[in-house]
Each structure stands twice: as structure tokens, then as C-alpha cells.
Amino acid sequence: MKILENIGAYLLFIKKVFARPERRQVFLRELTNELEKLGLNSIVLVIIISFFIGAVLTLQTAYNMSNPLLPRYLIGYLTRETLLLEFSSTIVSLILAGKIGSNIASEIGTMRITEQIDALEAMGVNPVSYLVGPKIAAALVINPALYIFSVLVGITGGFIAGLSAGSVNYDDYINGLHFEFNPYYVTYSIIKTLAFALIFTTIPAYYGYNTRGGALEVGRASTKAVVDSSIAILVANLVLTKILL
Amino acid sequence: MIQISHITKHFDAKAVLQDINATFQKGKVNLIIGKSGSGKTVLLKTLIGLITADTGTINYDGTEITGKNTKNMTQIRKEMGVVFQGGALFDSLNVLDNITFPLTLFSTATEKEKQRKAHSALQRVDLRDVARLYPSELSGGMKKRVAIARAIVHQPKYLFCDEPNSGLDPLTATLIDNLLSEITHENNITAVINTHDMNSVFEIGEHITFIHQGRKQWEGNRQEILQADDPALDEFLFTSKLNQTVKRNAK
Ligand SMILES: Nc1ncnc2c1ncn2[C@@H]1O[C@H](COP(=O)(O)OP(=O)(O)OP(=O)(O)O)[C@@H](O)[C@H]1O
Ligand SMILES: [Mg+2]
Asked: Based on the structure, what is the number of domains in chain A?
């Protein structure tokens, strides 16, 4: 019952995001800020994680393919497929849900308890669309870009690790990367990253917006936001995969 | 002038405001006083339309904003400035951007014009060299001043302040009080100020509404308050020895 109520309130909240757009000048200024914040906040993390996971994927695949009958280009192929299909979209989004999601929840939660949201409303601003709209727009731009970036960095990580450990040679790896490339997988993943971006901005924003009380409650909202957005991402992943693949 | 009548507000089953009637006069400092938890903030937020009253009407110089008339509020918001209890400056914007914020929303002024107005508002609250600082770099009293500057930059007809001098040293508190009083008279503003500070009452209180347990218990001016015979008001105002002496001497 409580869950249904929450989902209902969440949907009404989303409706408010699109209710009355702010002046374009204000929206553009906020969007620029958010793009910068979101990008800076996540790019280093995504590089580090993607590089190491790409490296480990390659080494593990090589290790598991000691059978000489299996072609070596499968190493590059499997690394690419894992990154392309699942890691760079879902896992990266899960990690961003932790980082960006908790940022958004605590930022908006703090604004709530320090009456900054009241101040916006008193000036006739729709606080939901003003605060959340630019964050959604920025995440919709950044998350697919991070996906592509993560795939490229992951493949590079695998390449460097595989070559330097002697598990795969240059030609095999590159052949693997080209082997049976299906561009639809990229489309599928980009659709996923868009859905995940919506999830990890709006759910934390919802929790932050509905914070009541003090600093303790802001912390609580932030934790709840991360847990719920992560679950929502996993469920959305399953549903989208069923529909799209 | 703002008139409210029969304002009632419950949170769940708890009655926070009960049948409040009051008038806040133009060109005067109207104080709402009362103990912590008496309902001052809820009343102020109801006045400015952030909280919807269960029953009752609110009228701004003949414009009704309650019930079916919430659209009128949109217009009135352009003519009103609010200073919240903690200042409520936007953390992500520097002082200058905080102050120009209402101008960006309400006017078509050029960037240069907005900056000029912001600087003159800062000057009005006696602040210099802070335009580029962020709220986290300001002291409590500076934040309050910036909040006041933001509230007056678009020359509002109505000014609302929720405990503008709480948490400040007595000297700064008095300065802020006098500042608000001056601004009110200079621009013939209808000012409504929440406070539980005795000094404010006697320094600037021209019309005083005393709220006790969600009800209006007393109203009058600062001369009358010394003569008032209301036990709850007495308890609120004259608990300290110093204030008791003030009252005895006044009588
Ligand atoms: N959103 C809310 N939900 C439930 N109860 C509330 C809410 N806001 C205020 N209250 C209750 O209303 C009562 C009056 O609160 P209010 O904040 O108006 O007091 P106040 O007079 O401003 O006190 P202070 O001087 O400490 O600021 C309190 O008992 C408070 O718990
Ligand atoms: Mg209060």
C-alpha cells in the first residue's frame, strides 16, 4: 500500500517537472551548470572503473580460454560484448546512481530544510521544474556520452592489460573487436542509458524534495534514494532487455 | 494593507492556527510575536501562499488570494519580498547572482541594469566587497543582510521577514531591525515581521500581533503593550527581571 502511494506521489512529482517551464534564460543557465557538474563529477570515476574492468575482463576471458581449439580473437570479442551490452550501460549507471543520485538527493534535501525551496516558490518559481528539469536534461545528454566513453576506455584497458600480460596479441584483439559487430546493441544500450538517467535523477530528486526535518533526514533521504534508484535500474534493465532484444 | 480573517490550519489532527483575524498596515512595521512553536512561521507562510489554510481568507489591498483566487498570487509574488528564518540564500549562487535572481524572474532589465540594482541593494544593507562570495563564506549576520537585499532589490510592496535578527548579537540585531524599519518607511511597504525578540518589539514594533498556542491573543502598538493586562502576553514578554522593571516603570 505504502509503495503504491509512493509511486503515485512520485508520478505526480514527475508531472510537475514538465508542468511549467521556467524562463529559457534561467533554464539554460542551470543546464550549463548541471552539465558541468555532472560531467566533472563522473568522468574520472567512469575512466578508472572502465579501464580496470576492461583490463580484468580481458585477462579473465584469456584465462578461461586455455583450450587451444578456441580462437584467440574471442577474447577481444567477449570483452567488447560485455562492455557494450551490460557493463558500460547498466553497471556504470548503477555506480552513477550511487554518486550522482546521492548528490542530487542531498542537494535538494538541503535546499528543502534550509527553506531555499520555499524561497523559490515565494518568487513564483516552480521549484520542481527549476531544480529537476535541468538535471534530467543534463543526465540525458551525459549518460549516453559516458556510455560510449566507457566502452572505449574499457576496450583500451583490456588491450593494454592483455598485451602486456601476453594473454592476447595485437591482431587477435583487434580482430575480436571487429568480429560480428551488431550496431543495434549500441542502440539498445543507449536507450537503456537514457532510461537509467531518468531514474537516477528523478528518484533522488523526489526523495530530496520530500525531506522534512534536519541534516539527519537529508542523510536518510540520500541513502533511500540510492537504494531505490539502484533497484529501479535493475528492474528497468530487465524490462528493457525483454522488450528490446 | 493585508487583511486575514478566520485563518485556520491543521497539520493532521493538530491545530496550529485557529481562527486568526488580523490586519497588517501599509507603511508600517507589523510584528507577529509569540513563543517558539506558537505558529508564527506557519502564519507567515500561509500569508505568502506557501501553506494553504484550511479555512479563512487573505486579502492583499483588495485582491483576494485564497480559495479560487490562487491565480492572483502569481501577480502579487512580483510585488513581494521574503526573508526566511535562516536566510535561505541559494548555496549554488554567489551573492550577486542571489540578489539578481528576482530581477531575472520579474523584469526584463539588462544584465548591467540588474547588477547596478543589486549593488545598490547591497549598499542599502551596508555590505561591501561581498558580491563574488558564496553564502558559505558569509557570517550569519551577513547572510541575513544579503537575504534582505535580495528581498528588496525589486522594490516590493510587501516585505515578509521570519525572525530576521535571531541568532545575532544584540548590536547587529538592532542594526537589522532599524534597517528593516527604515526600508519600510522609505518605500511605504507593508512589512510583516516575525520575532520573539523583546528589543525588536520596543525598537520598531508599530503594530503588534501576539500569537499564543495558534490563536491571536492580543494586538496593539508598543505603547499599549506595556499597559496590556494579558497573562499570556505578560509571561511571554516580561519573564526576565530587567523587563519586569521596564514594565513597572512604564506603569
Ligand atoms: N509541515 C509541518 N507539518 C507538521 N507540523 C508542522 C509543520 N510546520 C509546522 N508544524 C508545527 O506547527 C507548530 C508551529 O510551528 P512554527 O514553525 O510556526 O512555530 P514558530 O512560532 O515559527 O516557532 P519558532 O519561533 O521556533 O520559529 C509547531 O508545533 C510545529 O511542530
Ligand atoms: Mg519560526
From this structure: 1
E strands present in B12-134: 14-24, 29-33, 55-60, 63-64, 80-83
Residue bearing the CA closest to ligand 1, atom 7: B11
Interchain contact, A119 vs B105, CB within 8 Å: no
Instruction: Tell me how far the alpha carbon of residue B87 lies from the centroid of ligand 1, in angstroms.
Output: 17
CA angle B85, B82, B53 (to 5 degrees): 85
Distance of CA B141 to the CA centre of its chain: 16
Q: Can you tell me the ipTM of this complex?
A: 0.92
Query: What is residue A165's DSSP assignment?
Result: T
Please give the model's pTM, rounded to 2 decimal places: 0.91
The B residues from 48 to 87 touching A (CB cutoff 8 Å) are 48, 50, 74, 77-78, 80, 82, 84-86
Q: What is the pLDDT of residues B70-84, one digit of tens each?
A: 788 888 999 999 999
What is the DSSP secondary structure assignment for residue A85, as one 8-state letter? Answer: I
Q: Is residue A22 in some structural domain?
A: no
- Residue A216 domain boundaries: 28-244
| C-alpha of residue B219 to centroid of ligand 2, in Å | 19
> CA of B10: how far to CAs of B7, B28, B42, in Å?
10, 30, 10
CA atoms of A200 and A175, how far apart (whole Å): 36
